[in-house]
Design brief:
This protein is α+β, with helices and mostly antiparallel strands and 189 residues long. A 4-stranded antiparallel β-sheet has the order 2-3-1-4, sandwiched between helices. A hairpin with a 3-residue loop joins strand 2 and strand 3. The relative contact order is 0.19. The C terminus is likely disordered.
Length: 189
């Protein structure tokens, strides 16, 4: 029996989806570009706003603003569309993603900022690349021209780009989000 997802009063959710058995879901940059294209289309079709994103090898993180039912539809379009692309490209069949996506409500500005930083620092934490040099996250969108994210609401929480940089660089490993300690409390269905 599926446990109902927790609702967010603010309609903001940290969303995570991982490859089945932690398998890679991005084999190359072409896969990442296709994922972002499908993501952009899914966001437009469901009128969902994206605040942050990061693509890792075997999973991805999104921070989305929309009612939960629209997020579920967005993720259905995104994960289903990308799985069809991936399976066709690599001649495979079956599920690409492990279970349904995970989601966690984000209720206040403090936790919103924590989740954004957590998402952007994922490549550094995994020792893949420095977060400020990693091409497959929204970190740079807050320092330059936005491409996928609606940054106005979040940008207003910082005095400017220098403040935003300092917020990320002043990080100490105390943030707990969906994937870390809070996962036990997050709905897994």
């Amino acid at each position: 029996m599926r446990i109902p997802r927790r609702q967010s009063e603010a309609d903001v959710y940290h969303v995570l989806a991982r490859g089945t058995g932690r398998q890679l879901i991005f084999e190359d940059d072409a896969d990442r570009r296709e994922f972002l294209s499908i993501m952009e289309d899914s966001l437009v079709r469901t009128a969902a706003e994206l605040y942050a994103w990061c693509l890792m090898g075997n999973h991805f993180h999104l921070l989305i603003h929309a009612p939960l039912e629209r997020i579920s539809e967005c993720m259905r379009l995104l994960c289903g569309g990308y799985a069809r692309y991936f399976n066709e490209k690599y001649g495979r069949v079956g599920h690409l993603f492990q279970e349904r996506f995970k989601s966690e409500p984000v209720e206040d500005d403090g936790y919103l900022l924590t989740v954004i930083r957590y998402i952007h620092l994922n490549p550094s934490e995994a020792a893949i690349a420095d977060f400020n040099e990693y091409a497959w996250s929204s970190y740079g969108e807050y320092l330059g021209s936005p491409r996928y994210c609606s940054i106005d609401d979040v940008e207003g929480l910082f005095a400017g780009p220098q403040d935003y940089r300092a917020f990320h660089e002043g990080y100490a490993r105390t943030d707990e989000c969906l994937e870390v300690g809070r996962l036990r409390n997050a709905t897994r269905s």
